[in-house]
Prior knowledge:
CATH architecture of chain B: 3-Layer(aba) Sandwich
Order of helices and strands of chain A: EHEEHE
Bound molecules: thiamine diphosphate
Number of strands of chain A: 4
CATH topology of chain B: Rossmann fold
Largest interface: A-B, 40 and 44 residues
Structural class of chain A: mainly beta
Oligomer: heterodimer
Largest sheet of chain A: 2 strands, antiparallel
CATH architecture of the domain at 42-99 in chain A: 2-Layer Sandwich
Shape of chain A: extended
Structural class of chain B: alpha/beta
Helix content of chain A: under 10%
Low-confidence stretches of chain B: none
Radius of gyration of chain B: 19 Å
Shape of chain B: globular
CATH class of the domain at 42-99 in chain A: Alpha Beta
Largest sheet of chain B: 8 strands, mixed
CATH topology of the domain at 42-99 in chain A: Alpha-Beta Plaits
Number of helices of chain A: 2
Mean pLDDT of chain A: 95
Strand order of the largest sheet of chain B: 2-1-3-4-6-5-7-8
Order of helices and strands of chain B: HHEHEHEHHEHEHEHEEHHH
CATH superfamily of chain B: Thiamin diphosphate (ThDP)-binding fold, Pyr/PP domains
CATH class of chain B: Alpha Beta
Amino acid sequence: MSNLKGWKEIPIGGVIDKPATSRLYKTGEWRVSRPVIDREVCINCMQCWLYCPDMSIEGSIEGKRMKLGEFKMEYCKGCGVCAAVCPVNAIVMKPESEFIDE
Amino acid sequence: MPNIRDLVDYVENNDWAFTQGHRLCPGCNAPMVANWATLAAKSLGYEPVVGVATGCLEVSTTIFPYTSWNVPYIHNAFENVAATISGAEAAYRSLKNRKKIDNDKIKFIAIGGDGGTYDIGLQSLSGAIERGHDFVYILYDNEGYMNTGNQRSGSTPPGADSTTEPIGKASSGKLQLKKSIVDIVAGHEGVYAATAVTSEPWDFMRKMQQALEFRGPAFIAVLAPCVRFWRIPDDSGVEVTKLAVETKYWPLWEYNMGVYKVTKKPKTFKPVKEYITKLGRYNKLMKRPDANEILEELQNYVNAKWDRLLALEELTKDKPLRTKI
Ligand SMILES: Cc1ncc(C[n+]2csc(CCOP(=O)(O)OP(=O)(O)O)c2C)c(N)n1
């Protein structure tokens, strides 16, 4: 707690002068299970990208098509919403204990 | 209306408007609402300015020195997000009139939980709507004061368990009905108001666009489960809101200056019992001897509400009460 700022050092009104600073806080540490995707089954519909409550799935447009990118484990809390909304069941949730070596 | 491609394209070439690192629970539906609302606005070319009332969303997204907002953002208090955003909107209008700012893409969005909307923030919301401010108010409705640990609110439905109206031998949980907040807002007449759910993102996006384009106050109530206190698995919020629509528990409709429109009409409905028994917060209710009675009452209630909505749609077709604010 010693590195907390005193009231005189905090800006008036608690103003935060930079946007999106919460990215410095890695919510992935909360995770107890993680999504594993089968790219062969995935149809790049982006449903999981849209639904992820932690914006931790990447996406891109390649030519005319949408492409699902990486699942960012630094932020993924392992809620399983991506697997639940996947229309083709391409995502399964696996216990974090299986990835202990990473 | 933005489509999925537009959104992916927007984020790839710009950034999320609502970002990673917020501390809402795994599986919470509130961040979906915050993300979709701001992303829809951004991808339509608007520059949203957001205010959030005290509650889970505010508390978990703005822990000093961290913020998950990638857009101008203001927090004031629990009871006055609508007043705060109407002040910001009025200041913007004044600056524009005095030619100190020449950007007409700025839009004002207030977001509040159900405690901050149905209860403590209701007069500030009513005032802001009555004054005709040009803003969009988004309610993420998790049917209780969840940030402080599941106290009942004016939105908690009858029979739900909460710490202030627990279910036990003496009581069947909350006894009162849930307020019909969209009807309350619609009662201001010069307003666009709608319901939405997390299981229908495109219905929400369309309503969001309509709300942004509406020149005056607009309101969208989004049913957004709290997985903790609804006692449901982390991954099931979306499935649950889908059931809410399929059982008439939360019909999808909109109101535009007096004209009602039902925006989703399922061909068949499931019994409301299917919805209730899916949620762990009714478990203790289901064990009480009067469970069936309460369920029947609720079924009659949702049936009557649905019929009433269809009748209102028929009655008000092409008959707006006002044509301008
Ligand atoms: C005037 C005032 N009273 C009480 C509180 C304590 N408080 C903080 S968050 C909260 C609950 C908010 O409930 P709701 O608006 O439903 O949002 P949720 O947390 O469920 O998302 C309460 C009671 C407060 N911050 N300000």
